[in-house]
Amino acid sequence: MSVETILVFGEADESGPSGLTLELLAAARDLATKAEVFVVGDGAAAASELGAHGASTVYSTGVLDGKLMGVHAAATLQAHLDSNPVDAVFFGQTPDGRDTAARLAVRLDQPVITNNVGAVIEDGALVVEEPVFGGTQNVFTAFRNEGPSLALFRPKSFEAEPTGSGAAEVVPVDFVDPGAAGSATVTGRHIEERSGPQLDDAEVVVSGGRGLGQPEAYEMVDELAGLLGAASGASRAIVDAGWVPYAKQVGQTGKVVKPNVYVACGISGATQHLVGMKGSKNIIAINKDPEAPIFGVADLGIVGDVHKVIPALIEALKAR
Amino acid sequence: MTDDADSLTRSKIRTQLVSPIFGPRVELLSGQHRYSTLHQRVCEIFQLLIWISNNLGAESTTMKVVVCVKQIPDPALPGELDPSTNYLKRDDKLILDESDSYGVEMALQLVESAGGGEVSLVSMAPNGEVSGLRTALAMGAEDAVLVSDDALAGTDALGTARVLAAAISRMSPDLVLAGVESSDGYTGTVPEMIAGVLEMPSITFAKQIEIDGDTVKVQRQTEAGYDDVECATPALVSVTAGVVEPRYPSFKGIMAAKKKPLEELDLAALGIDSSVVGKNGARQETVRVTDAEERQAGEVIEDEGDAHEKIVEFLGELKIV
Ligand SMILES: Cc1cc2nc3c(=O)[nH]c(=O)nc-3n(C[C@H](O)[C@H](O)[C@H](O)COP(=O)(O)OP(=O)(O)OC[C@H]3O[C@@H](n4cnc5c(N)ncnc54)[C@H](O)[C@@H]3O)c2cc1C
């Protein structure tokens, strides 16, 4: 059984729609007869790629200048849904996705279910799948509300898949002014320098944790990553300690990565870290504690000192 | 602390402000020679000191911060779902969610740097649990409101936000702080929903907060770095975990916390209809719980100085090198 229409809350920048948007579009297409995308931004620029991934219509508000998005997006979406009812709205579990879904839930008085990694339709109702307890169990929850079901999904839950269709029809939408609640203004942006492969789509990820002992030791993680053409990541322990920026954090409150190979160096394997990397195809762990939980998910576990194993590995790779 | 008690302290402060302060001050400055006895002079100076301290105190009480805190089962213990309801089991003692301790610390620091003010807590728990609130009171918060009601079991994010918003609106804060997400539910939507119900501006994912008059200025964490974001107060700000070092309650703090006002309210007291909370309000149903596919542990070897060769070999098989 399927439902009629699912609207995807699309996120896009100059370089096009986000990977997560395309993933949600694939899921929406699977579950509904019609998959539409609502872009708070330049939807026209994203329309050809969204169309190629199966979107029938792209609603585009144009760029919102200088304001925090959530409140404005929710007010505009509410007005849109009023005249264009849908069965469900899919959001990515991103800062803007969460803010918008939360504000929209209040406006529509509809429940939101977060942290999902899967979705099916059962008896005409949307049923979403949420991993709990560090991904050891999955809870399936059915929406029993009247009105659109609002669901947030974690990145990498679905596979983006082009359908080969042409560009989607673009329908412009006017912003709705949410009043004083929408007054939060962005006065400056600070972008950290990013170079080399990015965590989201790297083939190989090398991550470091507290077991590195000191911030300087992260340099060998970077060097190893460089030799493997990998992105470098981190546990929250060393992000909180200020060794590396938040953008490198892997886990429940950081990024979800699913590379071909994940190398965990001096990371214990707390459940909140595991949910961010357990989906990797192959996992290599280096930890001096044979009881470390990370070994429970590793394909190759090395019980050893990162300060010995990593430099030796770097030398061996350089010698090749 | 009830509303009445709150307005009482406020009006007391206000009275002290308008009491004949200017009298003694002007006299003291312009007519010192009229005071004949040392005793009178000492009295005057004493009065001046009281005036200064009251006046400073009164000015800073203009800042009232309410922090939302959740009391959760100890995350160090393995979590379990109640097989009959599929709700997270909360039978054991609940503790202050670490994610919220950052909000409490942030609030205390803001009030300290403003030279005074008041930090109040608000929490919702189905079973009247207060131990987590006592921890936050011991850190230095002034008072707490706990919303507790049997009807709350199974309440979802939106219901929780409605309850907390109702409690917060009675407290008339300048700033509402919350953790970005709880450690057990981590929906990460409740703070923004509270702001939605209160029709307040909000800034999520704060890593640094500064109060500048009636404006709150925030460094908001982003994927790529951070943004500077600001809005007028009253506003809600959600605080990212790990951005400040939550203080440990001192022994004195723990003792003091036992005597701090902790008001317990039920839904009726907040004027909330029980149909918007609990299972009915959630309008969702857990249809099944399955065990996730276990990832099989592979080979684990002890490094004898040659483990790196093993890694190179493994990477070679995967054609990475
Ligand atoms: C709500 C919430 C959300 C969270 N989100 C995340 C998240 O997104 N990502 C995340 O990572 N964490 C997250 N955490 C934190 C998580 O619980 C752990 O605290 C964290 O992952 C631990 O990081 P770590 O493994 O680097 O440090 P530790 O747990 O301290 O582990 C260090 C490891 O290094 C090993 N070691 C020490 N010295 C050496 C050496 N010389 N050689 C080799 N090994 C050595 C030790 O044996 C140990 O296993 C979250 C926690 C909460 C409560």
Description of the molecule:
- The complex is a heterodimer of chains A (320) and B (321).
- With 320 residues, chain A is α/β, with parallel strands linked by helices.
- Chain A has two domains: 3-183, Rossmann fold (3-Layer(aba) Sandwich); 204-318, Rossmann fold (3-Layer(aba) Sandwich).
- Helix content of chain A is 28%, strand content 29%.
- Chain A is built from eight helices and 18 strands.
- Chain A has helices at residues 19-31, 43-52, 69-83, 95-108, 218-227, 236-240, 271-277, 306-319, and strands at residues 3-10, 12-13, 16-17, 32-39, 57-60, 88-92, 112-116, 118-122, 125-132, 137-143, 149-153, 169-172, 185-191, 204-208, 231-234, 261-265, 282-287, 300-303.
- In chain A, strands 7-11-6-1-4-5-12 form a seven-stranded parallel β-sheet, with helices on both faces. A five-stranded parallel β-sheet of chain A has the order 15-14-16-17-18.
- In chain A, helix 3 packs across helix 4 and helix 5 (218-227) packs parallel to helix 8 (306-319).
- Chain A is elongated.
- The mean pLDDT of chain A is 95.
- By secondary structure, chain B is of the alpha/beta class.
- Chain B has two domains: 3-59, no CATH class; 63-281, Rossmann fold.
- Chain B is 38% helix and 23% strand.
- Chain B has helices at residues 3-18, 22-30, 38-60, 98-113, 131-139, 157-169, 190-198, 251-257, 267-270, 278-282, 307-317, and strands spanning 64-68, 71-73, 94-96, 118-124, 143-147, 175-179, 202-212, 215-221, 225-232, 235-239, 262-265, 284-291, 299-302.
- In chain B, the strands form two sheets. A nine-stranded mixed β-sheet of chain B has the order 9-8-7-10-6-1-4-5-11, with helices on both faces. A two-stranded antiparallel sheet of chain B has the order 2-3.
- In chain B, helix 1 packs across helix 3 and helix 5 (131-139) packs across helix 8 (251-257).
- The longest helix of chain B is centred in the N-terminal third of the chain and has 23 residues, at 38-60.
- The N and C termini of chain B lie far apart (66 Å).
- The chains are: A alpha/beta (320), B alpha/beta (321).
- Chains A and B meet through helix 3, helix 4, strand 7, strand 9 and strand 10 of A and helix 6, helix 7, strand 7, strand 9 and strand 12 of B.
- The complex binds flavin-adenine dinucleotide.
- Flavin-adenine dinucleotide sits between chains A (209-211, 213, 235-238, 249-254, 266-268, 270, 272-273, 276, 286-289, 292, 305-307) and B (75, 98-99, 183).
